[in-house]
Write a structure and sequence with these properties.
By secondary structure, this protein is α/β, with parallel strands linked by helices. It is built from 4 helices and 4 strands; from the N terminus they run ββαβαβαα. A 4-stranded parallel β-sheet has the order 1-2-3-4, with helices on both faces. Helix 1 links the parallel strand 2 and strand 3. The N terminus is likely disordered.
Length: about 120
């Protein structure tokens, strides 16, 4: 996990899967390939979404996310959970955009608009 001492937006790479209670306001996940995350991370992602924490999924290294299959950790499952896709952004750029969006709103629908444009 990256150093988040100056912000409360975490970047998770597929090896990490923790949500720090009260310390995390947003999560960016660097997915595999077209945006798939490790199946072991799904419970933590569901926990974060249940707490209202925005979760942004990126493709590796960057590119369009394709929600085609419904296997655990697939973009289709992430879409159903309520994750936001950072389509053509790297994890680092998605983190910056999430932090900027959260200066305006913490509502998922409002944050999603920043990533959909």
């Amino acid at each position: 996990m990256s150093d988040t001492s100056s912000s409360k937006v975490s970047v998770f790479f597929p090896a990490g899967n923790r949500v720090e209670a009260g310390k995390t306001e947003g999560i960016v996940i660097a997915g595999f390939g077209a945006g798939t995350v490790a199946a072991a991370m799904v419970p933590a992602i569901k926990e974060a979404r249940a707490k209202g924490i925005p979760v942004v999924v990126t493709a590796a290294p960057a590119g369009r996310i394709a929600p085609w299959s419904a296997v655990p950790g697939s973009p289709l499952e992430m879409e159903r959970i309520g994750c936001i896709f950072a389509h053509n952004l790297t994890p680092q750029k998605a983190r910056i955009l999430l932090m900027l969006a959260m200066t305006r709103s913490h509502e998922i629908s409002a944050i999603r608009k920043y990533f959909d444009n």
